[in-house]
UniProtKB/TrEMBL annotation:
Pfam families: Glycos_transf_2. InterPro entries: Glyco_trans_2-like (IPR001173), Glycosyltransf_2 (IPR050834), Nucleotide-diphossugar_trans (IPR029044). Its EC number is 2.4.1.-. The lineage of its organism: Bacteria, Pseudomonadati, Myxococcota, Myxococcia, Myxococcales. The keyword Transferase applies. GO terms for molecular function: glycosyltransferase activity. It comes from the Bacteria. This is Glycosyl transferase, group 2 family protein. Keywords: Glycosyltransferase, Transferase. It comes from Myxococcus xanthus (strain DK1622). Residues 10-135 form the Glycosyltransferase 2-like domain. PANTHER family: GLYCOSYLTRANSFERASE, SLR2126 PROTEIN.
Amino acid sequence: MSSTSAPRLSVVIATYNRLPLITRLLWQLAGQTLPPEQFEVVVVDDGSKEPTREPLQALALPYTLRVEVQQNAGAAAARHRGVMAARGDVVLVTDDDMQVAPDFLERHLAHHPEGSRTVVLGRIRPDPSIGDMPLFERWYAYLNNRMAEELSTPGARARGVHLFTGNVSFPRADYVGVGGFDKSLGQSEDVELGVRLEKAGCAFVFARDAYVLHGSDHVSFERWLKRAHRYGMFDTQVARKHPDVRDVNPWRLLFQTNPLTRPLLAATLVAPDASRVLTRAVMHAANAADKLGLEKAAFAGTSVVYGMEYLRGARGEAGGWTGIAREVARYLQGRGE
């Protein structure tokens, strides 16, 4: 379907080697209660190995679909390209492995009256099949649920650090006004964007009812560890950009975690390579607890493992003890908190 008038809402989805999943999502968007002339979908293929544009454009969808293709440049660059190509006043960003309810778009738009400057943080709920996934992926779903419960409590305040690209909408003008995603960041580009939008005066709202179902095809423990490592690296870069926002500083873990786990985190800093054996031992214990049905203990152990690898990444980015001392001092001296 094509349209000459600009839609009210643009849905932006970056995709990479997930043709069946993005196809499923596009069909779910075809069944929205929001009339199809009021929204468009912009898909950006970030250098998939299999052709994406032709199969997607061949779908008989009731809304306007545009497919952009680029060489692999990362999720931040792909999403930025999609937002810049979007024609709607409001942009909604989600991921290619999400599923949505029929009223998903309508619920997001309800929080964007004309002229408002609202960033809507939708809930990310785990797909029911998450129970079949490895412990570390179920732990990730547990964190999403915990954050949703915290933001749903009376008086809770949604902030820029809560922005995740799995389910968020914002005025396109504000996105452009703050410069969009920082494409130099390989992780945490969403949180960093949220910080800048908050500083620019946008209001943040948590919309529990505008939810997505998040499945997962991540089954490799080694890849999960590498992702934790990268978050530690790039969160260090984000903290340097925003020294006044303590919640993005990776060294907060040393002060906010359970005191019983701090020796393990310290071991990671003192002997990052030698302590890898310890990291794997903790994960082995967490998996053993999981098999015994001790979910709380299993999640606690997984959190420790993630924190150890995360701080390895932060340590490497800090560049040794002098750098670590500087980054910790930045956390302790953080302004505006």
